[in-house]
Amino acid sequence: MSAAATVLSGLDDLRPAQEDLYKDLHAHPELSMQETRTRTLIADRLRALDYRVIEIGGGVVGILENGDGPVVLHRADFDALPVVEDTGLPYASTVTALDEASGETVGVMHACGHDFHVASLLGAAELIAAARDTWSGTFMALFQPGEETAAGAAAMVDAGLTGAIPRPDVALAQHVLNHDAGVVGVQPGPMLSAGDSIKITVFGKGSHGSMPHLSVDPVVLAATIVVRLQTIVAREIAPGDFGVVTVGALNAGAKSNVIPDHATMLLNLRTYDEDVRAAIIDGIERIVRAECDAARSPQPPTFEYYDRYPLTDNDADVTATVRRAFTAHFGADRVIDLGRVTASEDFSRVPDAFGTPYSMWGVGGFNPGEGVPNHNPRFAPLLQPTLDTSTEAVVVAAMAYLGHDRTDTSTP
Ligand code: ZN
Ligand code: ZN
Q1: What mean pLDDT value characterizes the chain?
Q2: Which residues, by Cβ under 5 Å, contact ligand 1, an ion?
Q3: Contacts of 92 (CB under 8 A, 6+ apart)
Q4: Which of 17, 247, 350, 395 is the most exposed place for a label (fewest CB within 10 A)?
Q5: Ligand 2 center to residue 289 CA distance, Å?
Q6: What is the pLDDT of residues 30-81, one digit of tens each?
Q7: Is 80 exceeded by the pLDDT of residue 410?
Q8: Residues 314-360 pLDDT 10s
Q9: What is the DSSP letter of 170?
Q10: What pTM was computed for the model?
Q11: How many angstroms separate the alpha carbon of residue 130 from the centre of ligand 2?
């Protein structure tokens, strides 16, 4: 029997408690960087499993050293979203919380499947700890806060993560997605886009609505900018390169007969390439400044960058190793090419801080034709086979590096 199969022979006994843990996590979601209960639950569980536990930057790392061999890190994120759950599940969330960003009380829901990521990694950590004879090396289960605001991985790195835990030879992660349940999807190279948000403020000169000649009208200025920004992707980026520039909010003025003195725009960008990303940002700033000049704007525009997500660029060798292991375990019909996804993640900040190659894969959670996108109030992946599949995926990928029959020999 393979090392992965030996480790997973404990799954039948684990399953009832793991499903209860999942339902408990789902019923108790917490907003980004406010995840006190979830963090405590994870740290307690890891200590009970005899992992060495490091709490850092709002996250938790469980470390299990088991002799010579590679160091493998698997990451799960544990925050939820300000979404009112509408799944009808018996364990649906009724939680509300104060959203610090908006100052409002909001419903809270695990609408992105991070509860699956936590339950599967804790389950895998238990199985891996119970089968130490079948593998050697170091297994690290890293749980991060605040993925949905791009704050959590950076908080752990900024708090000194690289000095607090061993350097991983390989880093792994998974995400539950809108694909068929029981399926895992792999993708070498860029898998998730880099994401940036920008708040732009442009300035005019206020006046009575009947006296436009005495104004510098920021409404007309902002409208011109929104139209002109469309030319960046259409005219400046090569047709084969991917880029998205969306103006998600445009706000100015409050009354028909008052010309306001400023306008704000909220932009969202997605790219798969750092050069394209830099070119788009350069184009935005250049167009906004030039339009402000053209309008006789009395004050330079301001640019505030926030919610910045790095590119998720899967290492080709790691992805090939993971794919081979998945195919051997799940069978070729359950392993698909994921393709590129335009969503974004901050997972790569952790391996990038160590200079470690990484791969993230997708796990499907829905009956064919019944898929619901992440962040939707009705996002309810099937408990099974999703929980089993995601738990198996953690074990199988880790054992490709750590198992005594390991297929990857490129790491120590
Ligand atoms: Zn999400
Ligand atoms: Zn997510």
Answers
A1: 96
A2: 112
A3: 26, 27, 85
A4: 17
A5: 35
A6: 999 999 999 999 999 999 999 999 999 999 999 999 999 999 999 999 999 9
A7: no
A8: 999 999 999 999 999 999 999 999 999 989 999 999 999 999 999 99
A9: E
A10: 0.90
A11: 29
Q: How confident is the model at residue 377 (pLDDT cuts 50, 70, 90)?
A: very high
The domains of the chain are located at 3-191+311-402, 194-308
Rounded to 5°, the CA angle 168-173-177 comes to 175
**Mean pLDDT, range 262-275, rounded to an integer:** 95
Which residue bears the tokens 């359950």?
A: 334
Distance 4 CA to ligand 2 centre (A): 26
Asked whether the predicted pLDDT for residue 224 surpasses 70, the reply is yes
CA quadruple 291, 243, 351, 159: dihedral sign = positive
Size (the chain), residues = 412
The reported pLDDT for the residue numbered 103 is 86
Q: What is the CATH number of domain 3-191+311-402?
A: 3.40.630.10
Look at the block and give the residue holding tokens 């690290």: 140
From ligand 1's centre to the CA of 78, what distance in Å? 10
* Residue 394 Cα distances to 66, 102, 171, 174, angstroms: 18, 36, 11, 8
pLDDT band at 383; cut points 50, 70, 90: very high
Q: How far is the CA of 168 from the centre of ligand 2 (A)?
A: 22
For residue 324, what pLDDT is reported? 97
Element (H, E) at 6: helix 3-8
Helix (H) or strand (E) holding 17: helix 11-27
Helix (H) or strand (E) holding 66: strand 59-66
| CATH pick for 194-308 out of 3.30.365.10, 3.40.50.720, 3.50.50.60, 3.30.70.360 | 3.30.70.360
Tell me, in angstroms, the distance from the centre of ligand 1 to residue 105's CA. Answer: 20
- What DSSP line would sit under 42-59, residue for residue? HHHHHHHTT-EEEEETTE
Strands, E assignment, 150-206:
170-180, 184-186, 189-192, 194-203
**Band of the pLDDT at 412, cuts 50, 70, 90?**
low
